[in-house]
Amino acid sequence: MSLRLGDTAPNFKAVTTIGEIDFYDYTEGSWVVLFSHPADYTPVCTTELGRTAKLKAEFDKRNVKVLAVSVDPLDKHTGWINDINETQNCEVDFPLIADEDRKVSELYDMIHPNASATATVRSVFIIGPDRKIKLTLTYPASTGRNFLEILRVIDSLQLTADYSVATPADWQHGEDVIVVPAVPTEEIPERFPKGHTIIKPYLRTTPQPNI
């Protein structure tokens, strides 16, 4: 059965390029990006893992741990990472799970038979420190993921977890946000002292409160 938003992300033990890990132990207290790759030595995934490695500082400052999943064995992962580091001018130092038995892929419903009976689709799971699934994305094999969008979503998730706000379309860190309808207008000045704008009774904006 597929996992949905708000579900608890299941735990697993796995062999990875940094050693054996227990998913819960490894990610304790952190936000998590768990994303899958159809196979090693695939061109789009090579660019994706390289891009992720280059964004390490951005993930670190958001308290995010990144784990990648591929159904190929560990020895192939090691050779592939050498290629990624060489061709993408980076250093992949996050774990790449060797999911030969497809345990993780099946646990997280990463194999979609209509797309491929054996290979994972390009799934992305963002998981909070509370172990709850906050976002899922599924890309076709032909389309590389937008990791700046993944960072943007993490910024929104972390902001809205702490404040009664939502982020509008195309929102970027630093821009105004929307006060959620559950907050009465008369309470806005106290709760959001930076000011607010009433565009419509149901559409109230305020400067981003956590900066």
Descriptive overview:
The protein is of the alpha+beta class and 211 residues long. The chain is elongated. It has 7 helices and 11 strands. The longest helix is centred in the C-terminal third of the chain and has 16 residues, at 147-162. The chain folds into 2 domains: 7-145, Glutaredoxin (3-Layer(aba) Sandwich), CATH 3.40.30.10; 163-207, 2-Layer Sandwich (Antioxidant, Horf6, Chain A, domain 2). It is 30% helix and 24% strand.
Mean of all residue-level pLDDT scores: 94
Low-confidence stretches: none
Secondary structure category: alpha+beta
Radius of gyration: 19 Å
| CATH structural fold name of the largest domain | Glutaredoxin
List its traits.
Glutaredoxin; Antioxidant, Horf6, Chain A, domain 2; 2 domains; four-stranded antiparallel beta sheet; 11 strands; 30% helix; AhpC/TSA; Thioredoxin-like_sf; redox-active center; oxidoreductase; Thioredoxin_domain
